[in-house]
Amino acid sequence: MPAINVSLKDGADAAELDKAKQTVEEQGGKITHNFKLIKGFTAEFPADKVHTLSSNDHINVEADQEVKTQ
Asked: Which stretches does DSSP call E strand in 2-57?
């Protein structure tokens, strides 16, 4: 399963993040890390189910990947 990062958009209610966590667990995913500095988490989630999270207007969903600076 691919890893994804889920974070709460500015101005969104924190309950939306709890709903996203619930969706991950209900659809066979696993939360692997909860962020401390931002409201979000990393999860292993089935690729064919990502659309169920990305359709939520209150959260950002992106692939977990290495970030490099120049």
From this structure: 3-8, 30-34, 40-44
* Close Cβ partners of 44 (under 8 Å, ≥ 6 residues apart): 1, 2, 3, 29, 30, 32
Q: 7-56, pLDDT tens digit by residue? A: 999 999 999 999 999 999 999 999 999 999 999 999 999 999 999 999 99
6: left (phi over 0), alpha (psi -120 to 50) or beta: beta
- Residue type at position 58: H
Distance CA 61, CA 29 (A): 14
